[in-house]
């Protein structure tokens, strides 16, 4: 039996592992007759592993066989018309990954007689983000179903430009059910077109709107979008909201100030007392948020305030907490003025011995020249500090101290060497 026939037969196996393996193997025969139809049918398989493998295989075939893209797109689009919500969602995810190749078929579905299918098609168009669909989507603002209109407004936030801005602002009163989405989409457009002329229009509309509405949720959305507009002239307006009686508005004001100042380099050094209060609010949000973008923005903003001991301590703690993008940004700030941060850490009792050793180790392994180029006095103080905690730290940190010490103080290393050689961790490291 030929390999293709064996693989094709495996797609009908009772064993899900065999079906999955056959799905993965059939990719190289993706242009054979009946393969796409078979795979499309298996998107309804009971086994999630098989369904996921089918989705990946369809994407691979679309990439490897140009002539099969249209057939795959059309077949997946047909699945969006089924009642099975799981199948609809899987189809949507596939179409997003297929990208602009899926747009023509999605435009047809966006005019489907079923409002739910129209909505889902428009959601996918928004996620694909093809700016060429802007005019079509603006036309769909006249859809008779409110849920579809909401999806259109959200999609326009991802694909629209100056023309969309005018339509959304003009439609604000008309679409009372979608005012929050209009504000959010204006913010998304402002963020995508930072520096464009029409941002002034968004700026003025949102500022005027804030004074006119009472809904705290809508006010919060306005503040968030103002942060995305990114005009430095907004900072004073936002500062006044940090003390607002509504906690959600306070939070969004802090987030928006951080966003604007981290991007455009503005600050409020003339108001150092306010900064301390602001910093406490920003830290609370930082530690209670999963928003990596905000965390990085805050660190960039704080890089201008490293003369505050509270900021230095915060950056050190963040840099040592985890090994991710956020801690990496914090560590880059520390490296830019390492002596200042090391001096602070030497005198701050909250920086425990193991934390201090980790900080020195991070600097040493990232760029040892930073330590080597320090003045002799501070190098000797560092050497004394890390030696004083040698017996208290983990095995890895003991090795680190052993490796770093010669670069800080050869004399201190020579004196400590006999002691090091008796330590079982160091002895194992040296063998």
UniProtKB/TrEMBL annotation:
GO molecular function, one term: oxidoreductase activity
Pfam families: HEAT_2 (PF13646)
Domain of life from the UniProt record: Bacteria
The name this protein goes by in its record: HEAT repeat
Taxon lineage: Bacteria, Pseudomonadati, Candidatus Kryptoniota, Candidatus Thermokryptus
């Amino acid at each position: 039996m030929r390999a293709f026939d064996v693989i094709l037969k495996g797609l009908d196996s009772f064993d899900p592992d065999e079906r999955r393996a056959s799905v993965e193997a059939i990719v190289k025969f993706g242009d054979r007759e009946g393969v796409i139809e078979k795979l499309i049918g298996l998107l309804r398989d009971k086994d999630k592993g098989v369904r996921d493998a089918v989705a990946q295989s369809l994407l691979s075939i679309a990439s490897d066989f140009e002539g099969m893209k249209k057939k795959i797109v059309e077949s997946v689009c047909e699945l969006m018309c089924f009642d099975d919500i799981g199948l609809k969602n899987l189809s949507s995810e596939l179409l997003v990954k297929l990208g602009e190749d899926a747009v023509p078929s999605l435009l047809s579905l966006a005019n489907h007689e079923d409002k739910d299918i129209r909505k889902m098609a428009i959601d996918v168009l928004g996620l694909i983000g093809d700016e060429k669909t802007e005019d079509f989507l603006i036309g769909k603002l006249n859809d008779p179903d409110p849920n579809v209109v909401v999806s259109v407004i959200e999609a326009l936030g991802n694909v629209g430009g100056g023309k969309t801005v005018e339509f959304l602002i003009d439609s604000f009163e008309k679409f009372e059910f979608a005012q929050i989405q209009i504000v959010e989409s204006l913010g998304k457009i402002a963020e995508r077109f930072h520096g464009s002329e029409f941002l002034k229009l968004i700026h003025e509309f949102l500022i005027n709107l804030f004074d006119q509405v009472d809904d705290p949720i809508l006010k919060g959305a306005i503040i968030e979008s103002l942060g995305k507009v990114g005009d430095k002239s907004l900072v004073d307006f936002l500062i006044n909201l940090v003390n607002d009686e509504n906690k959600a508005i306070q939070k969004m004001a802090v987030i928006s100030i951080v966003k604007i100042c981290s991007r455009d380099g503005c600050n409020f050094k003339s108001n150092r007392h306010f900064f301390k209060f602001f910093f406490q609010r920003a830290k609370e949000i930082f530690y209670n948020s999963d928003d990596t973008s905000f965390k990085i923005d805050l660190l960039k903003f704080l890089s201008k305030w490293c003369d505050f001991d509270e900021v230095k301590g915060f950056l050190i703690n963040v840099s040592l907490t985890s090994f991710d993008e956020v801690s990496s940004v914090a560590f880059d700030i520390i490296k830019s003025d390492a002596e200042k941060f090391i001096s602070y850490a030497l005198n701050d009792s909250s920086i425990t011995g193991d934390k201090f050793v980790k900080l020195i180790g991070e600097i040493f392994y990232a760029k040892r020249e930073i330590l080597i180029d320090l003045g002799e006095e501070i190098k000797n103080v560092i050497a004394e500090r890390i030696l004083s905690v040698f017996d208290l730290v983990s095995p890895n940190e003991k090795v680190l101290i052993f490796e770093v010490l010669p670069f800080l103080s050869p004399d201190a290393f020579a004196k400590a060497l006999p002691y090091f050689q008796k330590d079982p961790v160091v002895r194992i490291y040296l063998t």
